[in-house]
Amino acid sequence: MTNHSLNDAFVIREDKSYQNGNIVTTLTLNRPKQFNALSVDMLSALQAELDNIASDTSVHVVVLQANGRAFCAGHNLKEMRANTDRAFQKKLFEQCGHMMLTINQMPQIVIAKVQGIATAAGCQLVATCDLAIASDVAKFATSGINVGLFCSTPAVAVSRNMARKQAFEMLITGEFIDANTALEQGLINRVASHELLDDKLQDLIDTIMNKSSVAVRMGKQMFYKQLEMPLPAAYDYASEVMTCNMMTEDVAEGIDAFIEKRHPVWKGC
């Protein structure tokens, strides 16, 4: 576990071990007074934690949550206005894009737990996570357009989650949508009452943790890679991945357990 006090850490890391030794890591954005904005320091702290987790084979699931009323209000506008040169702006957006790609490319499943508003790059962060569960009081917007800035980088993630017209409406109007609308339009996976959010999140985590870690890791990599391929190439790639998956001990154990009507004991290799 990362050693930071609650007061000084931009991101707080907590690890929870399951009986099989596998770990669920929770990363908590911890700048509630700044609405957990993605400042340079927040992005750096989050990047460092994600890089450490990505290489840790004992971590199977990552939960990304936030302290305070807001999940994440996007970039820190005061910081952006205080540093108006082009080099700073370009570096900031590249830093943010690199962090988003890390979430996409790391082998662990990353779940966003959204308890409040998620706007602009905060909405992008939700869209980038593999899965997202939200409180029924959460709201989402790509609101840069309201200050004259089209949310171009959030558009990359949002448009890969939602139908085209719904995504563009969010981007071009800057209007908020509620959690149930976000669910209907594909931005998030599940909605729970604020009181039951932790329980519903735990149900989702338990479901994933009970699956073969080999299949989950291979599946995440395969899912995102095939999305960028033409259909024939996607099928060729999928056939190769499925063949490799079939050669693992976990598949043999899983099929035997199914035939024998028992719970599988995953080998993790």
Strand pairing plus helix content: what structural class? alpha/beta
Instruction: Give the fraction of residues assigned to helices.
Output: 40-55%
Strand order of the largest sheet: 1-2-3-5-7-10
Q: Under the CATH scheme, which architecture of the largest domain would be assigned? A: Alpha-Beta Complex
| Strand residue percentage | 15-25%
What does the largest sheet look like? 6 strands, mixed
* Shape descriptor: globular
Mean pLDDT: 95
Q: What's the CATH H-level superfamily name of the largest domain?
A: 2-enoyl-CoA Hydratase, Chain A, domain 1
Task: State the helix count.
Answer: 11
CATH topology of the largest domain: 2-enoyl-CoA Hydratase, Chain A, domain 1
In the residues, how many domains can be counted?
2
- Give the SSE order as H and E letters: EEHEEHHEEHEEHHEHEHHHH
Unreliable spans: 1-5
**Rg value:** 19 Å
What is the number of E strands? Answer: 10
Alpha-carbon distance between the termini?
Answer: 25 Å
User: Could you name the CATH class of the largest domain?
Assistant: Alpha Beta
What does this protein look like?
It is a single chain. Helix 1 links the parallel strand 2 (23-29) and strand 3. The longest helix has 20 residues, at 86-105. This protein has 2 domains: 11-209, Alpha-Beta Complex (2-enoyl-CoA Hydratase, Chain A, domain 1), CATH 3.90.226.10; 213-259, Lyase 2-enoyl-coa Hydratase, Chain  A, domain 2, CATH 1.10.12. The chain contains 11 helices and 10 strands. The chain has helices at 40-54, 77-82, 86-105, 121-128, 152-158, 164-173, 179-184, 197-209, 213-227, 231-246, 249-259; strands spanning 11-17, 23-29, 59-66, 70-72, 109-114, 117-119, 131-135, 139-141, 177-178, 190-192. The chain has 269 residues and is an alpha/beta fold.
